[in-house]
Write a structure and sequence with these properties.
Blueprint: E1 8-16, H1 20-30, H2 35-43, H3 48-68, E2 75-84, E3 88-93, E4 99-104, E5 107-115, H4 157-163
Antiparallel strand pairs: 1-5, 2-5, 3-4
Length: about 160
């Protein structure tokens, strides 16, 4: 069995200042979609992470067009995932001389694109051979037996008593 390698193009945005959990919600919407469809979905998604993911998608398409001579609209998002980046830890002053820790999460966004697998175009149908001079004799359809008429059954006992 021969394996067919598909050209895969990717783009990564590292240290994006958004929570990985929030970015994963947006990435799930574009996974497996075509590039034009994914762009439309991201354009109408109101989450802030959608803008960052849209930038990564644009970068991946630009990589495919510039480095591999592919057409951007003929690509699909084969994989899109968000990994956790480092968490910046900060302090905030609180009452009575205390401090509260603030976590500022980052994430790494990866988008991978592959070319759409198109089925080979079917060959044109072969011309039909000319009708033969001899025709087969037609059979006479078999006669059907007539079924006995069905008797309607009453729905309830009251209907039975009324008929009797």
């Amino acid at each position: 069995m021969a394996t067919v390698e598909r050209l895969e193009v990717k783009a990564v945005a590292k240290w994006v200042r958004t929570s990985p959990r929030k970015a994963r919600l947006v990435v799930e919407h574009i996974r497996g979609r075509s590039v034009p469809e994914a762009r439309t979905v991201l354009a109408f998604t109101q989450r802030a992470a959608a803008r960052e993911i849209e930038k990564v998608l644009r970068s991946a398409v630009a990589n495919a067009e510039a480095n591999h001579n592919l057409v951007g609209d003929d690509l699909i998002v084969s994989a899109a995932y968000v990994d956790e980046g480092p968490v910046m830890k900060r302090w905030r002053a609180r009452a009575r001389g205390r401090a509260a820790r603030i976590h500022k999460p980052t994430c790494h966004i990866t988008v991978k694109l592959v070319e759409i697998e198109r089925a080979p175009e079917p060959a044109p149908p072969a011309p039909e051979p000319e009708a033969q001079a001899e025709e087969k004799p037609k059979r006479k359809p078999a006669a059907r037996k007539k079924a006995a008429p069905r008797r309607a059954t009453p729905a309830t006992k009251k209907d039975e008593e009324a008929e009797a």
